Amino acid sequence: MKKTITVLIVISFLLLCSCQKTAKKTFFALDTVVEIKTYGEMPDGAEEYVKELEKVFSKTDTKSELYLQNEKEESTPSKLLYGLIKRSLDISADTKGAFDITSGALTGLWDEAAEKGALPDAESINACKENCGYEKVRTENGSVYKPKDLKFDLGAVAKGYIAELTVKKLQSLGVSSGFASFGGSIAVIGDKPDGSGYKIGVRSPDGDGVIGYTVIRHGIVSTSGDYERYFEYGGKRYHHIIDTATGMPSQSGVRSCTVISDDGTVSDALSTALFVNPSLLDELYGKYDFEAVLITENKTVITTANAEFVITAKDYSPADR
Ligand code: AMP
Ligand code: MG
Hints:
Elements: E1 3-4, E2 8-11, E3 22-29, E4 32-39, H1 46-57, H2 65-70, E5 74-75, H3 79-94, H4 104-116, H5 122-130, E6 138-140, E7 143-145, H6 158-172, E8 178-182, E9 185-189, E10 198-203, E11 210-216, E12 219-225, E13 229-233, E14 236-239, E15 242-243, E16 248-249, E17 254-261, H7 264-276, H8 281-287, E18 291-296, E19 300-303, E20 310-311, E21 317-318
Parallel strand pairs: 19-21
Antiparallel strand pairs: 1-13, 2-10, 3-4, 4-8, 5-7, 6-7, 8-9, 9-12, 10-11, 11-20, 12-17, 13-14, 15-16, 17-18, 18-19
The protein binds adenosine monophosphate and magnesium ion (MG).
Residues 156-157, 222, 224, 268-269, 271-272 line the site of magnesium ion (MG).
């Protein structure tokens, strides 16, 4: 059994602004439901723009640029793909592989396991681990060199990046307020017409409610959660975020990690990295520009200094740090 749920929600899009005309567009892309909402008219071309980006970054479309490039040892990708690979390799190194875009062999193995509803054996896990490792890839002058069986998986970073590109596109088409939601990543454009920001709720790992919310006026919010996509086997849950050190779904004690940044690559990549290895929080906070909210299995909430997260769930409390 495979389940996917949205981990972030924009609360009360229409409240306080019922006087202003709003527009909404919903479609399926990048293996998720994409929702774009704007105050004022929805410009033409937003969906087409996302679909163009999907042709570059999709992990499942066998004709995507990423998919075709994964077959090769040497390649010279488009500027867009090269740029995200290069940046992601740097973040993979900075996160000591907690986020690792070269984990495609392992994530593919676990995707297959989820399809079949059965666990992979230790031998297959070890064989796939051998084919992972950001340090095995070299980039130079627009070209990428990698072992043939090493496969990139941009699933932990592409939606944040695309969310950022999409709001930039919407702004260039005249939108001054609204948001674009890609499942685990939401990018907002400016304030609402009444001057208030967007209230973004982080879902409870155990149900439909929210643990709390933050209000943002710009930037991208990305969440990685163990309840986002998973299957059950022998009464246990196996989620989709893999610790490349063990080859297994990560078990760090974090149930969800939300990262807020003006940089969609950073928000998405670090939400995955800190979900896998929360002990990197202070080190990464000193290096990148972001705020974070981590929900732990002990029902505590870890926040960075300026996160401004309001806890509304009665059974959760701020963590002692
Ligand atoms: P996210 O929801 O952003 O944390 O991304 C999860 C997706 O990224 C998974 O469905 C995999 O495709 C891929 N993934 C899983 N584990 C990792 C990891 N440790 N590093 C990079 N990508 C990963
Ligand atoms: Mg991510």
